[in-house]
Amino acid sequence: MLSVPGLCWLCHLPLQLAQWGICSCCAAALRALSCLCPRCGLPSAHASHACGRCLQTPPPWERLVCVSDYAAPLSGLVQHFKFHNTPALASALARLLALRVLAARRESGLGRPDMMVCVPLHRWRGWSRGYNQSHLLAAWLSARLCCDYAPDALTRVRPAAVQHQLSARLRKNNLKNAFRLELPVAGRHMVIVDDVVTTGSTVAEITRLLKRNGAATVQVWCLCRTL
């Protein structure tokens, strides 16, 4: 029986290892910009220490790791993964994020977390979509990076308007008291996994919740950081 090679999700050429999903050439083209602030993930003059924005008004988390800007071609894959019922993209996208996390460990001594959580969906949105894309990413990452993952650590206690349709100010108000923590996190080094970080309102709200409950540090890992 002849084997059928997997195709790269981007260039559609055959893959040497079908489970990778994205070939090495396309993955290399998606490398994060070299000069991003390690704290907020926005453009900075130096990639090794916090930018002026973070020195004045730092975000509540300690580190942010992203694959790339929210731009083509990665943005197209993320939209397809999130809105077009394509959970099969999870492993390919999670592998890109894992490679970036491992690179950050080599380059800047990124600390190893104790526990991983994902941004939860309200149950109604989860049922309509069929899956939580952030959960699929976190589940793959936890298995490959040997990090505990608590899929039920966070719940969304009330529905809210879709974030990408709101201004920055409305995004913040939209998320107030929207999440509940179900597990103890005191003294733990945490990671929040999400697909896209735009203004950072969602992960900031979750970070504050984790820290109110005693989390030692919080990192944010995402596929795209809107620059």
Structural write-up:
By secondary structure, this protein is an alpha/beta fold. It has eight helices and seven strands; from the N terminus they run ααβααβααββαββαβ. Strand 6, helix 8 and strand 7 form a beta-alpha-beta unit. The mean pLDDT is 90.
Compile the SSE list and pairings.
Elements: H1 24-29, H2 52-56, E1 63-69, H3 74-83, H4 90-108, E2 115-118, H5 123-129, H6 133-145, E3 148-149, E4 154-156, H7 168-174, E5 179-181, E6 189-197, H8 201-212, E7 217-225
Helix pairs in contact: 4-6
Properties at a glance:
alpha/beta; 227 residues; 7 strands; 35% helix; 5-stranded parallel beta sheet
SSE order: HHEHHEHHEEHEEHE
* Main pleated-sheet profile: 5 strands, parallel
Largest beta sheet: strand ordering: 1-7-6-2-3
Distance between the termini: 48 Å
Low-confidence stretches: none
**Helical amount among residues, as a percent range?**
25-40%
How large, in whole angstroms, is the Cα Rg?
Answer: 17 Å
The overall strand count is 7
Strand content: 15-25%
The assigned structural class equals alpha/beta
What is the overall silhouette?
Answer: globular
Mean pLDDT: 90
